[in-house]
Amino acid sequence: xxxxxxxxxxxxxxxxxxxxxxxxxxxxxxxxxxxxxxxxxxxxxxxxxxxxxxxxxxxxxxxxxxxxxxxxxxxxxxxxxxxxxxxxxxxxxxxxxxxxxxxxxxxxxxxxxxxxxxxxxxxxxxxxxxxxxxxxxxxxxxxxxxxxxxxxxxxxxxxxxxxxxxxxxxxx
Amino acid sequence: xxxxxxxxxxxxxxxxxxxxxxxxxxxxxxxxxxxxxxxxxxxxxxxxxxxxxxxxxxxxxxxxxxxxxxxxxxxxxxxxxxxxxxxxxxxxxxxxxxxxxxxxxxxxxxxxxxxxxxxxxxxxxxxxxxxxxxxxxxxxxxxxxxxxxxxxxxxxxx
Lengths: 172, 158
What we know:
The complex is a heterodimer. By secondary structure, chain A is mostly beta strands. Chain A is 0% helix and 47% strand. The radius of gyration of chain B is 15 Å and the shape is globular.
């Protein structure tokens, strides 16, 4: 039986890098049904947190993200203000506890279909101080199959040690 | 080596319909993972039952974000589990049924709901039965949209 859950590609940074992009995903459309990204990241920005940004096919329109998060004392929800990308929610930057990276999982079902593309995003920013736990619902209102995924920090580049793993999941 | 993570069943709706059931679920896995990629007509609720049980044997707690506020709600002694409020656009829902096939404990489900046009949420549900789960039904008072896809995976611990 074919393997259901397969590592397609990975990127482990040994230096600062503005973005990470996985390309050529169109060649896997008959191999996998869903995609899953598992990333461990930190950006070079400063402040309470940064945001991770996600773009498909280098397209910068028709995105919407709805988030819910806990911030140590309360829960809140908001809609990401830009339609130019998806947001992961709050992630660690250079102002948080050293050596601490945010864990993010992004699940993209039916990524090569001709429907709009929905995804589920879970993010943690625990750093032994102020921290956020966010969940996000993403929608790319585009019927094109996803052929590339680009990940970047909103305010800073990814730092060395950030890792990105892309898995393909096959439903048969 | 035996596979750990295997697809059990998949179905894609060819038309709008009020419910979909995945049945004859084997008891040979440890956990189940159900991926629902689809929508609901008229921005309505998605509900769940297992084993066709329509009795008041379900309860659940849901954390909800509608983009302007966060809230939590719960239900007890219900005839189904409220999963979330969906739009007609594709939404991603991930259900986890851990230890689903044992015949000793009540069954729980953890669900992540990502409906960007309406809400983001997480749900925990309890089905007060010690029976192994052998079917899962998703339904709505409206309709699951044509093109919605459900895939059930089995995860084996050994």
